[in-house]
Amino acid sequence: VLSGVLFLIVLFFFFRFMRATGFILSGSSATSDFYKRHIVAMFTKYSTKFSDKTAFINMGASITYEELSVQATAFAAYLQQDLGLKKGDKFAIMVPNCLQYPIALFGALLAGLTVVNVNPLYTARELEHQLKDSDTKAMLIIENFAQTLEKVVANTPVEHVIMTSLGDRLGLVKGTVVNCVVKYVKKMVPTFNLPHAVRFNYAVKQGLALKLSPVELCGDDLAFLQYTGGTTGLSKGAMLTHRNMVANLQQAKAAISPLLEVGGELIVTALPLYHIFALTANCLTFFTLGGTNLLITNPRDMPNFVKELSKYPFTAITGVNTLFNGLLNTPGFSELNFSTLKMSLGGGMAVQRPVAERWQKITGTRLLEGYGLTECAPLVTLSPHNLAAYDGTIGIPASSTDVKIMREDGTEADIGESGEMCVKGPQVMLGYYNCPKATAEVLKDGWFATGDIAEMND
């Protein structure tokens, strides 16, 4: 009897151990615990784990994970305590790649807000539509495009405007020089009148003296309203939850981590962070790897882009086909040191074979091609990392992702037959914000109809 009791006790604690370590999952599904996670929990975990490592670099200035955490928390406290923003309020960010972006991004999320990414190059009409459609209550904007906001702000629900200049986080001396050059030499800041706007540096400084009240979040809460291009009409806001985003960054991480080393990567971020590709693939994914994002503010200036690349032993780079092609044709690029480069990832548009083959010849690294959409946070498929050369495909589905090809009559296509690509997975959006009809047209039985034509080979 004693032996039997001891056996049962050992068995009990064995199963407790197995459940705690994840070998046996409690709940109705293997993902129940995972889906309780959110970006704020991820940010807190990794900003602590990699506290002394450099998180972002821009124009020679850098910020560590710990410094980012302090400044983002201060910004969150300002949004919450001074502006009175509450969980679920929409906060727009309209800045290019600069240090202000990650501070504002994580600050807004820490405050429980939903981030609305805005392209700084929007016309007044496009900006007005997005701010009204998203019910944006407050926003951060770079002063170069404040004139556009001035034209429409009275027609929008925006109550608070936070203004920043390009050099605001570069340090007093360098920042002042950069801001003077941008405003008075290059004359890139048109005259504007937004009298109630608050300066970004002031907001962060004020927030340092305030206390952030923690916001309870779950996977179902909206993290982003990420607007589509609007090529077939007015742009629509894809509702991406914390679950969507955490799942997709884990999917991306699973696909590329065999190539990478935790705490040892520097990724070139030339694509704008307000776009879902760079937001997930660069900012969020490499954050979980303890990597450094080298932010390129103006990648169209290819000579200076190449000059910036020459300063850093970069290990990864993402881009679109035109960016890779532009670099290949910029003097000095082929002479760079590519000995540290491990991963090159193309998306956003089709990678062209001549570009991919020339890229591999010059850099010694294969150009991986991926496919994704705003509505899928964005990764859907990616070329296997261990192929020897570019193969002209968009690869295989990300983990936990199903893909099928459908004929026009609604039946599933055979191997080698083209049709509409449909996607199912934890990264698929909830739907379009305030657009139930448009949502119903693309989401059916959990499958998202991409509108893109593809075929699946053997």
Explain what the structure shows:
A nine-stranded mixed beta sheet has the order 2-1-11-10-12-13-14-15-16. The protein has a seven-stranded mixed beta sheet with strand order 7-6-5-3-4-8-9, sandwiched between helices. Helix 3 packs across helix 4 (100-110) and helix 5 crosses helix 6 (146-152). The protein has helices at residues 2-21, 39-49, 65-82, 100-110, 124-133, 146-152, 172-185, 200-208, 242-256, 276-288, 302-309, 321-328, 353-363, 436-442; strands spanning 54-58, 61-64, 90-94, 114-117, 136-142, 160-164, 198-199, 222-227, 237-241, 266-269, 292-295, 316-319, 343-346, 367-372, 379-382, 396-397, 402-406, 419-424, 443-444, 447-454. By secondary structure, it is an alpha/beta fold. The protein is globular, with a radius of gyration of 23 Å.
Features:
single chain; 9-stranded mixed beta sheet; about 450 residues; 7-stranded mixed beta sheet; alpha/beta
| Rg for CA atoms | 23 Å
Overall strand count: 20
The description of the largest β-sheet is:
9 strands, mixed
What form results from the Cα inertia axes?
globular
Helix content: 25-40%
- Category from helices, strands and their pairing: alpha/beta
Whole-number mean pLDDT: 92
Uncertain spans: 17-32
Amino- and carboxy-terminal Cα gap: 60 Å
**How many separate helices?**
14
Strand content: 15-25%
Give a nutshell description of this structure:
The chain has 458 residues and is an alpha/beta fold.
